[in-house]
Design goal:
With 607 residues, the protein is of the alpha+beta class. The protein has helices at 2-7, 11-34, 48-57, 64-83, 87-110, 120-149, 156-184, 195-212, 225-256, 261-265, 271-319, 339-344, 348-354, 364-377, 421-435, 445-462, 476-483, 485-502, 528-541, 570-586; strands spanning 323-327, 333-336, 380-388, 394-405, 411-419, 465-473, 508-513, 516-524, 545-547, 550-552, 556-562, 592-596. The protein folds into four domains: 1-189, Arp2/3 complex 21 kDa subunit ARPC3; 191-315, no CATH class; 320-425, 2-Layer Sandwich (Beta-Lactamase), CATH 3.30.450; 436-596, Alpha-Beta Plaits (2-Layer Sandwich), CATH 3.30.70.270. It contains 20 helices and twelve strands. The longest helix is centred in the middle third of the chain and has 49 residues, at 271-319.
Length: 607
């Protein structure tokens, strides 16, 4: 957010901010040199480089030169009073400038946005490595310059060690504080309801640190850990960074002034030993609290991701017109989307209670057989089935069911279904048009051929017979010639109606074309069933047809064929029925004749 505000700001508009930045760096540099002075004039805790590092990390690359120039002026002013005007002041100021710039450059080239919580662990790893490398290089240069330009009683190793530790601690602690302050602003204090708690907790840590470093006992330094850990546990990084910063400032100030357990309690008269103990103490505080803050922050990120994911999933499921259901490992419905009311009329509670009762009885087994294997083998399955609406009618649902794994590793199912009634009805209507005669509603030749093949195949497996009736209307051509084709169509419809009333629901009535009809009869053992149908149909056709004001007498000739036991030859059966029809016509019409296939014809042991 800070980068976004600064990116388009002109230099003139940024002058007040640059002036404030320069003042803060200069004051912190003065404090680091005079209030936290260590061996040979090197600070035990160098704060300005941390501030510069944090500012660079949260600023556009195009603004870095201005900040670096202001920081160099502040460093020169801070070192000038201590080391006087000369090459040493310039060299140390450049070293101060280098470590912050070099570390920021390394981090910026490998981390896109330091403000992204999702990549905070990567940012911290890269930042730690970059800081250590930059401070090591600047420590080598600074110790070399100090030894060359102003020899001291302490050797190169002490100078290198003091500079490295003070700058690394300063950049880690105050660099993190600067980054959080510039990115989060007042939000770093947490939610409004918890800001007073955060301030009070940090104040408790500061008060504890002040009291401890006013004492001489070395052992009481460990008493600082409980309030520090409490602050971290309550507020994560928002509590860790300011608490560590205050501890570092208070401890460094007290130790440099000759107070506290590292001077009096340890009996350390050597300023090198004091500096080492102080820096080691600050480092131990960081090591103790940082992992806790990191884990809590990562947990917060994961919790936020899970909550956001659940919120997005629930929003999509709640506002989807599809029916979304989560079925748990125990086959219980863990979630039912509100669309169940719009789709089926039932409330979620009603649907959960009735569930299988709403599925069409013919589709229950199919639905169970589709879903049950998913618990064992996983994968996804699709099914189209019927479900009862609250108004009583059935609607067609097309469902996709996918196997998923819950938090405990157990299999669960996610169901997504939508209303496809219009599509299925359109498909059925299309099938009706393809397989049904549009004039009479009877089956057409396509459906007749399909059913004939199936019937003969079943008969072959079950050792049963198949019967076929071929029917022609007698003198139908004279009806068309004398009364017109419209009347002829009415005759055909009336005949189809009478034919349908003479056969069983499992038998198939067919219009083959013109005035030619057929009836397919399955699963028969003797000729009696076929004779009964032929007699019934012939009798029905002898009744006059009243078509409006016109009354006609139309009869039919019927040829009946019966296959042999277990025979599967469709052509042979058709030839039998056709031959019997020819005999009926030759016998004077308005009658029927029967033809039975030659060969074994006693399926049940009876004649």
């Amino acid at each position: 957010m800070t980068q976004a505000l600064e990116r388009n700001a002109p230099l003139v508009a940024r002058l007040p901010g640059l002036a404030l930045f320069t003042l803060v760096v200069a004051v912190s540099g003065w404090w680091s040199i005079h209030m936290a002075l260590g061996p040979s004039g090197f600070s035990m805790l160098w704060i300005p480089s941390g501030i510069l590092f944090g500012v660079l990390m949260t600023s556009p690359r195009g603004h870095w030169p201005a900040y670096l120039a202001c920081a160099l002026l502040a460093f020169l002013a801070s070192n000038l009073q201590r080391n006087g005007a000369g090459l040493l002041t310039l060299a140390l100021s450049l070293c101060n400038l280098f470590d912050a710039w070099f570390a920021a450059r390394l981090v910026a080239s490998r981390v896109g946005d330091v403000g992204q919580l999702a990549s905070i662990n990567r940012t911290l790893r890269v930042g730690g490595i970059a800081t250590l490398l930059a401070c090591t290089l600047s420590a080598l240069a600074a110790a070399t310059a100090r030894q060359a330009l102003m020899p001291q009683q302490h050797g190169f190793g002490v100078l290198f060690e003091t500079w490295l530790a003070s700058h690394a601690l300063g950049m880690v602690i105050f660099g993190a504080l600067t980054v959080i302050t510039r990115i989060e602003g007042h939000r770093m204090l947490g939610p409004p309801k918890r800001r007073l708690e955060l301030l009070a907790t940090v104040a408790l840590v500061a008060a504890s640190a002040w009291l401890i470093f006013m004492q001489a006992s070395l052992s009481i330094t460990f008493l600082l850990l409980p309030p520090l850990m409490f602050c971290v546990l309550r507020h994560r990084f928002s509590g860790f960074v300011p608490a560590i910063a205050l501890i570092a400032v208070i401890a460094a100030t007290a130790t440099a002034a000759g107070h506290g357990p590292f001077v009096l309690g340890a009996g350390a008269t050597d300023e090198v030993a004091r500096a080492r103990m102080l820096q080691l103490f600050i480092l131990c505080c960081c090591w103790a609290a940082f992992p806790v803050a990191s884990v809590l922050t990562e947990r917060r990120i994961l919790t936020h991701r899970v909550a956001r994911s659940e919120q997005q999933y629930r929003m999509l499921a709640d506002y989807s017109r599809d029916l979304i259901i989560r079925i748990g490992p125990g086959r219980t419905l863990e979630y039912i989307s509100p669309s169940v009311t719009e789709l089926l009329g039932w409330t979620r509670e009603e649907y959960d209670r009735l569930r299988w009762e709403l599925v069409h009885p013919d589709d229950v087994a199919i639905l169970r057989d589709t879903m049950d294997p998913l618990y064992e083998k996983g994968g996804m399955a699709s099914i189209v089935y019927r479900c009862r609406h609250k108004q009583g009618s059935y609607i067609w649902l097309a469902a996709n069911v996918r196997s998923v794994t819950d938090a405990n590793g157990r299999a669960a199912l996610v169901y997504s279904g939508r209303d496809v009634t219009s599509r299925v009805e359109a498909e059925l209507a299309l099938e009706q048009q393809v397989r049904r005669d549009p004039l009479t509603g009877l089956a057409n030749r396509l459906l007749f051929d399909e059913r004939m093949a199936l019937a003969l195949a079943r008969g072959g497996r079950n050792r049963t017979r198949v019967g076929l009736l071929y029917i022609d209307l007698d003198y139908f051509k004279s009806v068309n010639d004398n009364h017109g084709h419209a009347v002829g169509d009415l005759v055909l419809r009336e005949f189809a109606r009478r034919l349908s009333g003479c056969i069983r629901s499992v038998d198939l009535g067919v219009r083959l074309g013109g005035d030619e009809f057929a009836v397919l009869v399955e699963d028969i053992a003797t000729t009696q069933s076929l004779q009964f149908v032929a007699n019934k149909l012939a009798t029905a056709m002898r009744e006059p047809m009243t078509l409006g004001e016109l009354t006609l007498h139309v009869t039919a000739s019927i040829g009946v064929g019966m296959s042999g036991c277990g025979q599967t030859d469709a052509a042979a059966l058709v030839q039998l029925a056709d031959g019997a029809l020819y005999q009926a016509k030759a016998a004077g019409r308005d009658t029927w004749r029967l033809a039975v296939a030659e060969g074994p014809n006693d399926c049940d042991g009876n004649a």
